[in-house]
Amino acid sequence: MYDNVSLHSSTHVYLCTISEKKSSWYVKKGLGERRGNVLTLNFEPDFMGDKLPGKPSDIEYHRRYKRNECVVCGSTSSGFMRHYVVPSCFRCLFPKRFKSHLSHDVVLVCSRCHVGVQAETGRRMTKVIWVVEGRRGNGVGMWVVDRGVMEARNAAVAIRKYRGKMPKDVVERHEEIIRGYLGRDFGEGDLEVMEKVWGGMERSDSSIPSNNVTNKLPLVASLLAPLVA
Prior knowledge:
Blueprint: E1 5-8, E2 14-18, H1 20-28, E3 32-35, E4 38-41, H2 56-63, E5 80-84, H3 88-91, E6 106-110, H4 111-135, H5 147-162, H6 168-182, H7 188-196, H8 217-228
Parallel strand pairs: 1-4
Antiparallel strand pairs: 1-2, 3-4, 5-6
Helix pairs in contact: 4-5, 5-6, 5-7
């Protein structure tokens, strides 16, 4: 997941680490030369040394070598999944300055820990929604979430995308969650419906989790109010 390609200026000043994809882009555009795990630009960028964009803590993060390991258990085996510390359904509505160059909001979780992390994220989202909506004096009926639906959909997504990378017992655990919710066995068609259709449902029933972003705009505005005041 982390490629840790070292990026240097034309005068060999260390700038930061970048991905293989970004490195290939620089080379393809004729902007630098790659030797081993070091990419040297053929120009001096606007940002140099301690003048990298962002706060000092952001600069330190972008320069640091990043280990490919689960942030929960420390596992270094394959089968990692990206976990968004700020849920993507909220993050996508943030102003650009709150989501640009913030890759440290995305961490790696192994397939074994993914189910528990997703469940905890869901509980945290529900708690935040109740607190914020309560402050605004609104009812929270529209935010009631059927945990079974969300867990079943997350399990379907994990199986469709990562079946070949997950340990057998983790796959079986996901399959059991789906069977428990559907009350029957399932096929690939069921998984596709659960991922694509359930993921796009608007809130017409309080028992169905909504991904309709317009419902989340007031909540996001409330969350950001202290930062933009």
